[in-house]
Every structure is written in structure tokens, then in C-alpha cells.
Amino acid sequence: MYKEKIEAYIDGHRQEMIDDICALCRINSEKMSYKSGKPFGEGTFKALAKALSMAEDYGFKIKNHDNYVGTVDLNSGVRNLDILAHLDVVPAGEGWTVTEPFAPVERDGKLYGRGTADDKGPAVAALYAMRAVKELEIPVTKNCRLILGTDEECGSSDIAHYYDEEPEAPMTFSPDGAFPVVNIEKGRLEGRFAREFARSEAFPRILSIDGGIKANVVPGKAMASVQGLDLSDLCDLAREMEKETGVEYEIKAREDVADITAIGKGAHASTPEEGVNALTGLLALLVKLPFAPCGQVEAIGDLLELIPHGDTQGKGLGVDMEDELSGGLTLAFSLLHVDEESLEGTFDSRCPICSNEENTLQVIRKKMEVKDFHFLTKSMIPPHHVDGSSVFVKTLLAAYERYTGRKGECQSMGGGTYVHHLKNGVAFGASMPETDNKMHGADEFAVIDELLTAAKIFAQAIVDLCQ
Questions:
Q1: pTM of the full structure
Q2: How is residue 80 annotated by DSSP?
Q3: From the candidates 152, 176, 311, 348, which is the catalytic residue?
Q4: How far apart are CA 112 and CA 122, in angstroms?
Q5: Does one domain contain both 107 and 237?
Q6: Are 402 and 423 contained in the same domain?
Q7: Are residues 353 and 371 in the same domain?
Q8: What pLDDT, on the 0 to 100 scale, is given for residue 268?
Q9: Helix, strand, coil percentages for the chain (3-state, nearest 5)
Q10: What domain range is 81 assigned to?
Q11: Annotated catalytic, 100?
């Protein structure tokens, strides 16, 4: 029911929808320093103001919740469905080739730019789904609310602030995953660790190591400064190691110091196998160099034993596990800083339903403590699971099947969304299962036809769930 009208409406508003997505994606909404009235900085404040202005122009009732969250209501009925999307983005990062991160462009049916897929494009698709229902005057008696957050990528304190004021809706979906329906989100263990050692003046030596931009991003670049090595030997080994690691090494000399930049391929930490970790690739090179023995060099070697280059399953830490419903554990070494007296680092592990603190966190703690690392993480976020046979999930799957002609079935994912802590929340779209839209990496894109299809599916879901 209403399929032809919904399809005609969304197709007829294609360019307008693209223009609105681009308007949001031109705003750099990375988390920035707090300013009075702007809890996550200037960029997220501007993005939220722009999105709410759009919604208000389309005739919706809006509310700004202290610049943490904005809401858009379809009608004044009892809330039955919430759609949770976010307007903040991960840092732009390096390696963009199609366009600059905040200069969105359409090319070959794709929309490139930071936020096009995660999550500004899907947020606008949800807004247009609500527009379709409203402007087509499809009769619904219950309310659908679009909730636009601004801190999803850095801890979701925005949505916690919102739920301190508002109750959960009976049903919630977030267009921040993939179709058909993600009813299982793996747990998360953000492992932080540190180690101290005596300063050494012996040559050759490592002066510093730095890699990573965020805990939930596989590093696409990492850097080290070393002193006292033969430059020719260093370059020769680097060329050999490029074949072994898949990482490119750039070396620049300044007197007796060499600056090494490792270049890999960034990826979302929930899918580390899709990236090439520049940080572990850099460590793999460093442990083969003839540095003078010292506590720092020993610590780096121990660290690489625990998280070897190419190990994205936690084998070195003794937590490689999987189950039938949610799949395998993944692990990404994402942040590291080393100076001459200490190191501190972070890894990001996404944990299946069979994982818990006893068989995961405590196992890692013991492994790291044996190697003299201080493991600083005290707890982990448990997995999230919504019954795939519920009326809610079946209704979403039916809408997906109706507009795609594909079989709808439940999936699990390593990425966490706003719904992770909600009793009846799932991820629903906005990309198709086979699409790798380079989320959190360079040249992020959304397939335009997929966003249009998502808007149609969302509109049908609103109609079916809010009658």
C-alpha cells in the first residue's frame, strides 16, 4: 500500500535530497573544543542548526535539546517509532583522492565526502521519508520522531543527555548500519594500556612513535623518529618490509635523525580486516632494526608479540573466539604514543555474544601484565541483541523486501550505533549489504540510488509502524 506514491515522491525529489545532504556535508562536524552553548564545538553546532532549519522549512515541529540533540516530529500523536541518526563525523583523515573531505561531489552515481554515508546522508534520507508520508498525506495516527545527535562518534553523551529527558519509544531504528536489519551489535572492549621504562642514551635509538587518530579507526598513517641508523640500510629494509606488510614507508633524513612515515589503509575499527594497519606495520619495521638494547625497544617488541601486524582477531592476546549468531571477535590496534621513558596505547575490540569480561577482558589483562604492561581498562560494553522474530523486526524486513526484491534476514555487526543500549532498537540501512562505502576512511561515499531506496523503505516502515 502506497508503494507507487512513495517511489514517485522520493524519485521526484532526488536532486533536492542530494542538495540537502551536500549542504550538511560541507560543514566540518568533527568533535571540537567545548564552547558555551556548544557542547561539542562549533562544527556540530552548525550542522545541527542547519538540519533543524531544513526540517522546519519542510513544515515539521522541531526542538533543540541544548545543542546536544535535535528532534523532528511527524505529527502530534503518541510516539511509536524513533529514528536515531547523527550529524557528527570522524576526523577527515589522510588519503582523499576524489574530493576534499568537506567538499562533497557527485560522481558516477556516488556522493563522495565525509558524512555522506556516516551518517548525514542516511539522516537526510530519513527526513525525506517523513516528508513523503507528510506531504502525500498518508494517514498515520502515531508519531515518528527523527532524533539527530551530535556526539555518536565520541561516546554518545548527546543521546544519554536526551534520554535523561525523554523516554524510549516502543520501537527505534538507526540508519547507521546496513540493510536488511542488524539486530545484533557486538560488544566493545576499548583496551587502554601503558608501560614505563628507563631512558636510554645508547645509539641507535628510537626517539618517538605516534600513530592513530581515534580509538575506533584503523590507523592509515603512523610515524617514528629514530637516531643513529645507517640511512641506506634503513631504506633497504623498508623496501623489503613493504612487500611483507603491505605498508608503504616514507623516510626523510635530518642530520643523524630519520623520520619514518608508515602509510597503510584506514578503516572502521569494527572491520579491521578491510584496512592495512600503518601502526602495526611501523612496529614490524622497527623491531627488525639494530637499535641498542633498552627497556623501550623491549617494550615495543613485547607489544608486537601481543598484537602482531595482520592479527585482527585477537590471537596474540588469546581471545580469538566466535559464535554462530554474531560471528568472530575483531581487534584493531588504533592508538600509540611512545617517547623515551614510556608508552601508552589503545586497541578496539568488537566482541561476539559468547564474549564476556571473564573470557575476554580478564584474559587480555593477564596476557598484558605478564609482559609488564599496565592494563587500564576496567570494563567492557556487552553485546546487544533484539529478537529477530518480533513484529517490529519482521515489519522492517518486509519493507526492505518490498522495495528491493531481496530476501530480508537479520545480521550482526561489529559497529555500535545509538541503539546499542535501547531495549527494542536495531540498525536499519542505509547502505545495501554488498556496499563498502569506506566508512571512516578516505573517499567515503554513499551510492545515491541506495539512499533513495532507503528513503522509500523508511517511509514504508513509518506508515506500517505508525498507523
A1: 0.77
A2: E
A3: 152
A4: 14
A5: no
A6: yes
A7: yes
A8: 86
A9: 35, 30, 40
A10: 3-186+384-465
A11: no
Q: Which of 350, 375, 400 is the last residue of a domain?
A: 375
Q: Give start and end residues of each alpha helix (H) in 210-273.
A: 231-245
Contact in structure between 56 and 146 (CB atoms under 8 Å): no
- pLDDT means per 10 residues, the chain with 467 residues, are 95 98 98 95 98 98 98 98 97 94 98 98 98 98 98 93 96 96 95 98 97 93 97 97 98 96 94 96 98 98 98 98 94 98 98 96 98 98 94 98 97 87 95 92 96 98 97
Are 450 and 430 in contact by the 8 Å Cβ rule? The answer is yes
Question: Are 329 and 438 found together in one domain?
Answer: no
Residue 47's domain is classified under what CATH number? 3.40.630.10
Residues 176 and 193 in one domain: no
Q: What cell was used for 354?
A: 559468547
Q: Is 335 found in the same domain as 214?
A: yes
> Is 66 an annotated catalytic residue?
no
Q: What's 408's DSSP letter?
A: P
Query: What H or E segment, with its residue span, contains residue 375?
Result: strand 374-375
3-state secondary structure of 17: helix
Q: Where are the alpha helices (DSSP H) in 246-361?
A: 278-286, 295-306
Give the pairing of strands 177-178 and 267-268.
unpaired
Single-letter code of the amino acid located at 16 = E
**How long is the chain?**
467
CB hemisphere CA count around 164 (13 angstroms): 10
Classify 391 as helix, strand or coil.
Answer: helix
Please pick, among 20, 30, 82, 88, the residue that the annotation labels catalytic: 88
On the question of a cis peptide bond just before residue 233, with omega within 30 degrees of 0, the verdict is no
Q: Are residues 369 and 390 in the same domain?
A: no
**Which residues, other chains included, contact 209 with Cβ-Cβ below 8 Å and sequence gap of 6+?**
222, 223, 224, 282, 283, 286, 300, 336, 337, 338, 343
